[in-house]
Design goal:
This protein has 2 helices and no strands. It is rod-shaped, with a radius of gyration of 23 Å. The chain is mostly helical.
């Protein structure tokens, strides 16, 4: 079935599917890990417990 231009313009919305939910969850987990890493780095720098090379 092919839709013409007018019919395509009338299509509204769309369902939230599992792929979108997984992408949002992955994004949130990446932000949490980034926050943990940044917090650990700040804590090490402020406590002068960084490794010297």
């Amino acid at each position: 079935m092919k839709l013409n231009r007018e019919e395509l313009l009338k299509i509204k919305g769309g369902a939230v599917n599992a792929t979108l939910i997984n992408a949002i969850a992955k994004g949130i987990s990446i932000l949490i890990e980034l926050g943990r890493s940044l917090g650990s780095t700040i804590r090490r720098v402020t406590a002068n417990k960084s490794c010297e090379i």
